[in-house]
């Protein structure tokens, strides 16, 4: 994805602890891009804290019942993959909440298709596809920077006023008392994500290896989540201990500030 974490304006006003995490571990952000609408400023980076992820792999068959057999004869059709995702997005100020809503606006607009005009008729030209990346859990296993391509059949944005409270910003123009802005101090994003397989995925029975994107995987464990290679385990263990220790220390001194961060790294 073209946009870098260092280009995100939130770095200029978010808490120092959050900025440190985001700059040191940019993989912990939620990335959206829209391949059918590659317009300027149409890529999103959310400092979102994962609440829940579920992954459903569904092989489908046609079943035919024949006389003399107890079980039907299954004929394989295809395998689909659907992810269900929940993220929290806390707002640390009125300005922060406003920036979150601006990103939500872009996200919601990209849930609609693209059109062209042809001889006075409006024709759908491009579907609202999306490419998503989050850490090692939503990722192209052969290219960790690209994310997964797919579409969402349902996207829900919750403004959580009850839990953390509200920001209220009056209109600068005092002559119009009916105008103003209300923001929640915390938001959540829930959506289903149907993965589109961009190439053949499955076992090569000739080689005994798993194939993804036309390439043989050296180990079946390389798909579908990115996992730590054996030679990296000792380094990862040391880094993980340091991250956990730092976050727990901050959690004791200011639990309200890092409660979201610990959902990823604590």
Query: Please, what is the average pLDDT?
Result: 77
Helix content: 10-25%
**What does the main sheet amount to?**
8 strands, antiparallel
Rough outline: globular
Q: Round the Cα radius of gyration to an integer and report it.
A: 23 Å
Structural class designation: alpha+beta
Q: So how many helices? A: 6
Number of domains: 3
Write down the secondary-structure element order: HEEEEHEEEEEHEEEEEEHHH
What proportion strand?
Answer: 35-45%
- Regions with little confidence, pLDDT below 50 for 5+ residues: 242-266
Q: What is the β-strand count?
A: 15
Q: Can you describe what's shown?
A:
This protein has 266 residues and is of the alpha+beta class. The chain folds into three domains: 5-196, no CATH class; 202-227, no CATH class; 228-266. 22% of the residues lie in helices and 36% in strands. The chain contains six helices and 15 strands. The strands form four sheets. Strands 1, 2, 3, 4, 7, 8, 9 and 12 form an eight-stranded antiparallel β-sheet that branches. A hairpin with an 8-residue loop joins strand 3 (49-64) and strand 4. The longest helix is centred in the last third of the chain and has 21 residues, at 233-253. The radius of gyration is 23 Å and the shape is globular. It starts with 15 loop residues before the first helix and ends with a helix. Residues 242-266 have low confidence and may be disordered.
